[in-house]
Design brief:
The chain is mainly alpha-helical and about 130 residues long. It has helices spanning about 15-25, 45-50, 65-75, 90-100, 115-120. The protein contains 5 helices and no strands. The longest helix is centred in the first third of the chain and has 12 residues, at about 15-25. It is globular.
């Protein structure tokens, strides 16, 4: 569905990422997770067991294997430039950007938005 879920983490480490991902993904319908190759995914095996979903890691230096991830990063960068301190944004501001992205029609989804695909609802945009 390409539905984006965001969570602000106080630290960029494996334990904080595991807790954050479990919080937002626990009750979501998942098929797989394809992260980048950062060391913050060191606890991926525990996450995989707890969420009952496989992790697929791309080959090093081959970002085209994670096309959706790279595209989503580009969409986020329209609002949050690289190396910018995200601590200056409130949770509500980050959620507002997440909602904008999830309600944005996408060509790859037949001009539906990720919200429509995940929740099987049709939105009327006027």
């Amino acid at each position: 569905s390409r539905y984006l879920m965001t969570v602000w983490l106080p630290k960029k480490n494996a334990q904080a990422l595991k807790v954050g991902m479990l919080d937002v993904l626990r009750d979501m319908p998942l098929r797989s997770i394809t992260p980048d190759r950062g060391k913050e995914f060191a606890l991926h095996a525990q996450l995989s067991d707890e969420l009952q979903v496989p992790f697929y890691f791309p080959e090093p230096g081959q970002p085209w294997q994670r096309g959706s991830n790279e595209n989503t990063n580009g969409l986020l960068r329209q609002y949050f430039p690289k190396r910018q301190d995200l601590g200056q944004y409130s949770a509500a501001q980050i959620q507002a950007v997440t909602d904008k992205i999830n309600l944005r029609p996408r060509k790859c989804l037949g001009w539906k938005c990720a919200y429509e695909v995940l929740f099987r609802k049709t939105l009327r945009l006027v």
